[in-house]
């Protein structure tokens, strides 16, 4: 069990930081000084520093798996970028922040070259998931998952673009989380009232709503369409959006199925921070999350998952999807 308040406070501060950077980037673009990649880098490190600060204060001995690090902050950023991050943190946290603070918080709980997830509690941070969505003002998420003995058990996910269906640049959005093995959603504003969420009870495959990646380079949309058709779903029902928000849409019943099937020959390993929070959230909401073979996602090996692809569903259609993937892979092997 973890205490909700400090985590929610940190997530809300991280969301404020990300939105501030997006607003500044928009203004920069109007003056034609925006460089595309740069704002997302600033927000990415800023967001992770805020989450690392919370973990340092409340869970100093826990292990952390995170996308960024203090080393990268020192080695990969220009002096202007690190100053911009420090200034933003100082404003958002209303506290004088130094480079040493930022580096310590970015490194909080991380171990070098960790190849197996230790027993006990491990936090898994994706400070901005869906970076291409963030840059293009579409959807992105801030993910904080909890592994217990290498199994996904806890989830916090900020989805600033939730609810508008168009862009990540607005003032709606939602926070999804798990507490006492139950899934909830609430607003990004501090006074929002949480409500319990569950996966859909839809049983007719022809009526099921599907979500998949927006970016064509991230998955094989052709293979996904074949798998859907093979399981009796309509490819017309697909909604595309960036980030792990797709897990949240299945968890709250706004979608019934989320498929992630790599392009043929892809050797890019899946990363723990893209899936830990989502897997815990969907399972707590009553859904199922497996790899393409129907096996649970394997978070036992640190940052890399050995699984190929993800099948996420309300549970009802899960076995049919696994069978459809198996047939596709057999057909391709012939
Ligand atoms: P999504 O919008 O669901 O595709 O999620 C974004 C995630 O896609 C990021 O967190 C990356 O880890 C991942 N990603 C980025 N580039 C690629 C790529 N070339 N192939 C597969 N996944 C990618
Ligand atoms: Mg990511």
Characterization of the model:
This protein is an alpha+beta fold. The protein contains ten helices and 14 strands. It has helices at 4-30, 37-58, 70-76, 79-93, 99-107, 131-135, 221-230, 245-251, 276-284, 318-333; strands at 63-66, 121-129, 141-148, 151-159, 174-179, 182-186, 195-196, 210-212, 238-240, 257-260, 270-271, 288-290, 304-305, 310-313. The strands form three sheets. A seven-stranded mixed beta sheet has the order 1-2-3-4-5-6-7, sandwiched between helices. A hairpin with an 8-residue loop joins strand 6 and strand 7 (195-196). Helix 8 packs parallel to helix 9 (276-284). The longest helix is centred in the N-terminal third of the chain and has 27 residues, at 4-30. The radius of gyration is 19 Å and the shape is globular. It starts with a helix and ends with a helix. 49% of the residues are buried. The model has no long low-confidence stretch (mean pLDDT 94). The site of magnesium ion has 4 residues, from strand 2.
């Amino acid at each position: 069990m973890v205490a909700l308040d400090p985590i929610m406070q940190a997530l809300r501060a991280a969301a404020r930081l990300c939105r501030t950077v997006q607003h500044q980037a928009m203004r920069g673009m109007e003056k034609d000084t925006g460089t595309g990649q740069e704002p997302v880098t600033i927000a990415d490190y800023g967001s992770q520093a805020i989450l690392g600060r919370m973990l340092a204060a409340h869970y100093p001995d826990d292990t952390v798996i995170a996308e960024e690090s203090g080393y990268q902050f020192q080695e990969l950023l220009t002096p202007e970028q690190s100053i911009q991050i420090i200034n933003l943190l100082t404003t958002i946290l209303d506290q004088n922040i130094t480079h040493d603070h930022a580096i310590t918080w970015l490194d909080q709980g991380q171990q070098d070259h960790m190849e197996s997830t230790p027993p006990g509690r491990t936090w898994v941070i994706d400070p901005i998931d869906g970076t291409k969505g963030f840059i293009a003002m579409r959807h992105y998420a801030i993910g904080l998952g909890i592994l217990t003995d290498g199994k996904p058990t806890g989830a916090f996910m900020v989805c600033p673009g939730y609810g508008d269906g168009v862009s990540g640049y607005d003032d709606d959005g939602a926070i999804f989380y798990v507490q006492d093995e139950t899934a909830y959603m609430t607003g990004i504003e501090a006074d929002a009232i949480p409500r319990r969420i569950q996966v859909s009870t839809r049983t007719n495959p022809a009526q099921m709503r599907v979500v998949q990646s927006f970016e064509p380079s991230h998955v094989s949309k052709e293979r996904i369409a074949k798998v859907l058709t093979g399981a009796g779903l309509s490819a017309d029902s697909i909604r595309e959006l960036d980030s792990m928000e797709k897990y949240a849409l299945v968890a709250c019943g706004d979608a019934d199925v989320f498929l992630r099937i790599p392009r043929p020959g892809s050797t890019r390993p899946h990363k723990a921070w893209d899936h830990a929070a989502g897997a815990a959230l969907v399972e707590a909401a009553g859904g199922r999350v497996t790899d393409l073979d129907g096996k649970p996602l394997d978070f036992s090996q640190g940052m890399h998952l050995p699984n190929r692809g993800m099948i996420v569903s309300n549970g009802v259609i899960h076995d049919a999807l696994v069978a459809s993937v198996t047939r596709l892979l057999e057909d391709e092997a012939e």
